[in-house]
Amino acid sequence: MESIETQRLLSKKLTRRGDRDTAYQQTRDVEGGSGSPVKFQQVYPLRIVLKKGFVRLVLAAGTLWMLLVMVVLLFHVWSCQSSLAFFSAICNRDGRVFIILDTMGFVPKPAHRCSIPLANDVAKVAIPRERTPDVILENLSYFEEDDDLKNGTESTTPLFGGHQSWAQRDQSFKLSKTMKVHCGFIRGGGAEMSPKDIDYVKKCKFVVASGIFDGYDVPHQPTNISERSRELFCFLMVVDEVSLEFIKSNVTVKKDSEGGQWVGIWRLIALKNPPYDEPRRNGKVPKILTHRLFPQAQYSIWIDGKMELITDPLLMLERYLWRGKHTFAIAQHKHHHSIYEEADAIKRRKRYARPLIDLHMKIYRYEGMQPWSVLKNTASGKKNVTNPTSLLCCSILILTE
């Protein structure tokens, strides 16, 4: 009897404990404990609402953007046909409103495409046997030492362009049979070549030149170069010491038996002691004064370092120089047609100090430089090295220093 009573009491205690556990669990579920069905049922609809709201927001923003584009296009079409002078002036490229918007950078620029009708066969290109005669300017020489330093009137270090006086500058623009002008490379002014490079370039009659400064890139190998041009041309890549180290650390540089350094077809020409503090100005030295770096060259082609030559250089000379009997050809910029447009673009990009650029343009206007017009035709980027073309490049250096 006692055992039966004991079992009955034990079963009642277990039943009461189970009831308490069940009630406690239900209480947790009602309060929203972790993993509770009640909380899951509350959170799940909220997530659905957020997802639907985000999708609707994206669709609404895309619709508004398309409507805005359509309104702008319709306004542009209407303004070009409007009788109101202000709106119709927006589409007039010669109008003042269009010029102002273009100066501010609001006018989109079309993609640049330049078709080059070249000859078909490099082997049939006839190279002129005689050079262009120097009739107007027979003898051209350059100052190689700074007169002020030589006379002891200046205590500063030599400048790359020399301490040129205003009288000498004015005289350099007056043509005569014999002239002596400042054209950079003053002794001690910087931009010196090594003796091995000087000996190499003495053999170059046809030159394709390029340049990399401040270590921003590596040489791009030309394509579509014929065997005739490979034997005829010297491909010279002018670099500063920073760029030379950058190139050595990124591509393979080979040395020949004479110590020359090569990257593919390009012979690296290192300039020591940069004449200017800014890499952009140092890059202008080989670009403008190719005839001074490579004085034995009869023909030279300049290619910017960021570009790749994809046309045979002999075909370029035939097309732009020999076919029309020209001595100088320079490329038209794909966006800017005059030095004044270039100055505005430089100021927008903040490449140089704006007051200095304004002063530079003021000097150009004072000396009578006219803006570009459609009557001024331009061609491509090559030259037959004669005394007049050399003087022109020296004059460009004088203007930019």
Structure overview:
With 401 residues, this protein is of the alpha/beta class. It has three domains: 48-104, no CATH class; 143-181, no CATH class; 192-368 and 390-400, no CATH class. The protein has 15 helices and eleven strands. The protein has helices at 2-31, 37-81, 85-89, 96-103, 147-150, 166-171, 195-201, 227-232, 241-250, 279-288, 290-293, 313-322, 339-349, 354-366, 387-400, and strands at 139-142, 178-181, 192-193, 206-212, 233-240, 254-255, 261-263, 266-272, 299-302, 328-329, 382-384. Helix 13 packs antiparallel against helix 14.
Break the fold down into its secondary structure elements and pairings:
Elements: H1 2-31, H2 37-81, H3 85-89, H4 96-103, E1 139-142, H5 147-150, H6 166-171, E2 178-181, E3 192-193, H7 195-201, E4 206-212, H8 227-232, E5 233-240, H9 241-250, E6 254-255, E7 261-263, E8 266-272, H10 279-288, H11 290-293, E9 299-302, H12 313-322, E10 328-329, H13 339-349, H14 354-366, E11 382-384, H15 387-400
Parallel strand pairs: 1-2, 4-5, 4-9, 5-8
Antiparallel strand pairs: 3-8, 6-7, 7-8, 9-11, 10-11
Helix pairs in contact: 13-14
Supply database-style keywords.
11% strand, two-stranded parallel ribbon, 11 strands, 3 domains
**SS elements, strand count:** 11
The proportion of strand residues reads: 5-15%
Number of helices: 15
Tell me the distance between the termini: 123 Å
- Mean pLDDT score: 77
Q: What is the subunit organization of this protein? A: single chain
The overall number of domains is 3
- Sheet with most strands: 9 strands, mixed
Pairing-aware structural class of the strands and helices?
Answer: alpha/beta
Indicate the low-confidence ranges by residue numbers: 23-35
Radius of gyration: 37 Å
